TrEMBL record:
PANTHER family: DNA LIGASE 4. This is DNA ligase 4. Residues 182-264 form the ATP-dependent DNA ligase family profile domain. Belongs to the ATP-dependent DNA ligase family. GO terms for biological process: DNA recombination; double-strand break repair via nonhomologous end joining; nucleotide-excision repair, DNA gap filling. InterPro entries: DNA_ligase_ATP-dep_cent (IPR012310), DNA_ligase_ATP-dep_CS (IPR016059), DNA_ligase_ATP-dep_N (IPR012308), DNA_ligase_N_sf (IPR036599), LIG4 (IPR029710). The lineage of its organism: Eukaryota, Metazoa, Spiralia, Lophotrochozoa, Platyhelminthes. It comes from the Eukaryota.
Length: 266
């Protein structure tokens, strides 16, 4: 984000302002104090470059964040960000930087912690959708239809995995041996007739979630980042590193829709 600000405001790369932003963690350049982050540094360095006032709205901010999220290349992100951040006031730019640099703040707040504050069922819905808009819509429906006393006990029931909506993948606990897995499995399924356990080697690759709908394909990483533009979205198309080849002979003719979640390696 610091590099983007330097480019957007046309700062000399070796100038004091640019170096202060690029090395905001280094007290030699930024005079950093406890609690001072990149957003604070941006506010102090770029205040004179920013607009005195702006007409930014919450919906306008969300629209820009969506555009940035869907931009596939860094050059495209810069093209979107440059006019936007130059139109902000210093205070607005400070908080915009803080929003997009949230992971660097080390606040110790997990997604589950934040969503639980919205509604007890929100984390469960998020896990099978990875979409905040869908979470809000479903929570609104729950609030209207469920009695107050039932809201705190809502679980994942009714919140299903749907095609073309990324979900949080299942992550297995590590086991030191196959025997350890068998013992744990026995404890869970003992007394159930006709149960069996299959073990297979776990190959280390890239965790990918693939959603296929006809000749349309979408890919997500374990963290919910979409990689469709890289692998390809059209089975009958010519772009993408995987989809055109996967679509031809990769599935049985009677498979029109499916979700695959696993390791991809080559």
């Amino acid at each position: 984000m610091a590099r983007i600000c330097v480019k957007a405001f046309g700062l000399a790369p070796k100038g004091l302002s640019a170096r202060t932003l690029l090395h905001f963690n280094n007290p030699k350049f930024s005079g950093k104090q406890d609690g001072r982050d990149l957003a604070d540094c941006v506010f102090s360095v770029l205040a004179d470059y920013c607009e005195a006032e702006s007409d930014l709205t919450i919906s306008g901010l969300h629209e820009q964040l969506d555009k940035i999220a869907y931009a596939s290349k860094q050059e495209k992100k810069l093209e979107i960000l440059t006019p936007f951040i130059r139109s902000l006031s210093a205070l607005e730019l400070k908080w915009f930087v803080r929003i997009v640099s949230l992971r660097e703040l080390h606040l110790g707040l997990s997604t589950k912690t934040v969503l639980t504050c919205v509604h007890p069922a929100a984390p469960s819905i998020w896990n099978v959708t990875q979409d905040l808009c869908t979470v809000c819509q479903r929570i609104a429906g729950i609030i209207k239809t469920q009695p107050v006393e039932a809201k705190s006990s809502l679980s994942i029931a009714g919140h299903h995995v749907t095609l073309n909506a990324a979900y949080r993948p299942m992550l297995c606990m590590r086991a030191n041996s196959a025997l350890e897995v068998c013992i744990a499995y026995e404890k869970v399924f003992s007394g159930i007739a006709d149960y069996c356990l299959c073990l297979e080697a776990k190959y280390d690759g890239e965790r990918v979630q693939l959603h296929k709908s006809g000749d349309k394909y979408r890919y997500w990483s374990r963290s919910g980042r979409e990689w469709s533009y890289s692998y390809g979205t059209e089975g009958n198309g010519t772009t993408g590193t995987l989809t055109p080849r996967l679509h031809v002979g990769g599935f049985s003719s009677d498979v029109s829709e499916c979700v695959l979640d696993g390791e991809m390696f080559g």
